[in-house]
# Entry
Amino acid sequence: MLYLRHMENWTSDPIKNATDNNDAPSMQKRHGCVTAWLIFGMVINAIVGLGYILMRDLLPQAMKEFSQNRMELTPNYFLTEGLVSLALVFCFVQLWQWKKIGFHGIILCTMITASVNYMANHQLTDFIFSFTGVLVHFLVLQIKINNQSAWSLLK
# Structure
């Protein structure tokens, strides 16, 4: 009898059943721009994070040579920024998996980055402009496909 029940599930159309079920956001499609944004965020933050961590000892001297701003940045600054970038990769993966916690993580990472940058150069504009990224993320998640935004599908 159990075998027949499995056969019943086999013969039903799983795609039709999944699209009829609005509780399964993983089967929903996201807009191509949202998909591209999430992939872009994962790749860039992974590269930047690993670069900051692996080159943290070389970057302070390079910043002195090539930057007009002569502030003293330590390897710990780059280590912190690298770890936050890798945390952002995790946040983008959570958004990819339709979890709103990813967006909350982006807000937290932005707060950390803004605070570290403010402590490094004491410019309020850098602190404020850091949060424009959160607004951009929110607006990208508002892009709709089939009259549903990615934001409305997050759990």
Strands lie at 144-145, 148-149. The first helix runs from residue 2 to 11. Residues 6-21 have pLDDT under 50 and may be disordered.
